[in-house]
Design a protein that fits this description.
Strands 4, 5, 6, 7, 8, 9 and 10 form a 7-stranded mixed beta sheet that branches. A 6-stranded mixed beta sheet has the order 2-18-17-11-15-14. The two termini are 17 Å apart. The chain is globular, with a radius of gyration of 23 Å. By secondary structure, the protein is of the alpha+beta class.
Length: 458
């Protein structure tokens, strides 16, 4: 177990799981890096040394000061009126989410159509949550009506401007849409995401079945949030539970802008870095150079939670008996003006060359598990794409492989979703038949949740 930071932010730990042994001439080192953040009463399943929790920052009234700012973006395009209950339920779910806001949290509500409008509080600012502002925000929601197009990039840009006014470490967006981004070019949405990335995180939800999965999941991926589907717009309970859950999770965050820094020695290089739990997210292309032979990968905001990352490093070939430090993995906070970044915790990845075949060929259980989980997500995506393209043979092969992997890894939720798209003939061999008719909601749910993983069974 690596060191713990003693500061005003939650404590972090880094634990490395790997088989450090390589055959003579071997070059590829794989490790699962488990990062755990604690400080609010849980341990993420990992033991922590005894230490007093950090004292909360207090405002002038003596109450803990807010650490979060949230902007809720509600789709108000014309399609939200089909049926009319959809808009009504969206208003009620948003009102319930507002009720969960803790006193002192900065917040705003944006109505999204082919343009973005500040519904509450207005004036390019955020309100401070208390009984009065929550009541006024809910009153403003009751005046929302459906009409107009969909230009999600404009919603995100407005949310970014509003959140930029908040003097809080946690800035978060919640986006609800029921349609495709039809009133702006794909490049405009991409530019908006690029402008917002690193400035705030965002959870995105698709309601019904008329939205584009890759758009919604792409938004969540770019802004380091979550994506999901509420397939039945008339299911007010599900919509409300999801919205309030997102809000509670956002308020549970304690520290933002944490970077996963990977240092490698001369001659070594990072092949890839992927988050593999609670969902698969490839971070390789998001590397920002951080000095000689080091790079930072964004991880977003943290509360009390634990995440797993798969790191693959290519090292110089070596002879039996040699060993080296293949990588040093650190959790860092951004560099303050004129100062050094804060290192919260770190772990080491090693390489040892051996002629013991049993040692060098043994695969670490966590590496094996998450390699399968990443392949599972890829197989589902490729299988669904092939199915849409009319490639029955390709879709059957890839979705059959997905069934096999889901069963082998114990990913029961994904297995159940797959069973709504294919008839399973033999789980062990991955033999399946495509269903002749599949509900659109089942298809979209499988695609949206394809990257969700399960952790290694202890």
């Amino acid at each position: 177990m690596a060191n713990f930071a003693k500061s005003t932010v939650p404590r972090f730990s880094v634990e490395v799981s790997q088989n450090e042994y390589l055959p003579e001439g071997g070059r590829e080192v794989n490790a699962i890096v488990t990062v755990t953040s604690t400080g609010g009463g849980t341990t993420g399943g990992l033991p922590l040394p005894a230490a007093p929790p950090p004292a909360p920052v207090r405002d002038r009234a003596g109450d803990p000061s807010p650490r979060a700012a949230v902007v809720i973006m509600v789709d108000c395009s014309g399609s939200m009126d089909c049926p009319p209950t959809k808009m009504r339920h969206a208003r009620k779910a948003t009102a319930a989410a507002i009720d969960t806001l803790r006193d002192g949290v900065a917040f705003a509500v944006v109505a999204g159509t082919h343009r973005a409008e500040e519904v509450f509080p207005g004036g390019g600012r955020l309100a401070t949550a208390d009984p009065a502002t929550r009541a006024r925000a809910k009153e403003a929601l009751r005046r929302l009506s459906a009409g107009g197009g969909t230009a999600i990039g404009t919603w995100l840009r407005l949310a970014g401007r509003l959140l930029a006014t908040a003097e809080t470490p946690i800035r978060h967006g919640v986006l609800l849409t029921d349609g495709r981004d039809e009133h702006e070019e794909p490049a405009e949405l991409r530019a908006a995401l690029d402008a917002c990335a690193g400035r705030f995180t965002c959870d995105a939800r698709g309601v019904g079945t008329d939205w584009e999965v890759k758009e919604v999941t792409g938004i969540a991926s770019a802004l380091l949030g979550t994506a999901d589907i509420v397939a039945d717009p008339s299911d007010l309970a599900a919509l409300t539970a999801d919205f309030t859950g997102m809000m509670e999770a956002a308020m549970g965050k304690e520290v933002a802008d944490v970077g996963l820094r990977v240092w490698t020695p001369v001659g070594a290089e990072v092949v890839f870095l992927k988050q593999v739990a609670p969902a698969v997210e490839d971070l390789t292309g998001r590397r920002a150079e951080a000095g000689a032979r080091a790079g930072d990968y964004p991880t977003g905001s943290w509360g009390d939670e634990s995440r797993d990352y798969h790191l693959c490093v290519r090292v110089p070939a070596a002879e039996v008996g040699q060993e080296m430090l293949a990588a040093r993995v650190s959790l860092v906070l951004p560099r303050p003006a004129g100062g050094l970044p804060t290192t919260l915790a770190q772990g080491l990845v090693r390489a040892v060359w051996t002629d013991d075949t049993a040692a060098s060929t043994a695969m670490n259980p966590q590496v094996a598990h998450y390699t399968g989980q990443a392949e599972l997500a890829q197989a589902i995506q490729e299988g669904m794409d092939a199915r849409k393209a009319g490639d029955v043979e390709g879709a059957t092969a890839r979705l059959g492989r997905a069934v096999q992997l889901a069963s082998a890894s114990g990913n029961e939720d994904t297995a159940k979703l797959l069973a709504k798209v294919v008839d399973v003939v033999d789980v062990a061999t991955g033999t399946v038949r495509l269903k002749a008719k599949v509900a659109e909601a089942d298809e979209m749910t499988l695609e949206t949740r394809s990257t969700k993983t399960v952790r290694v069974k202890k």
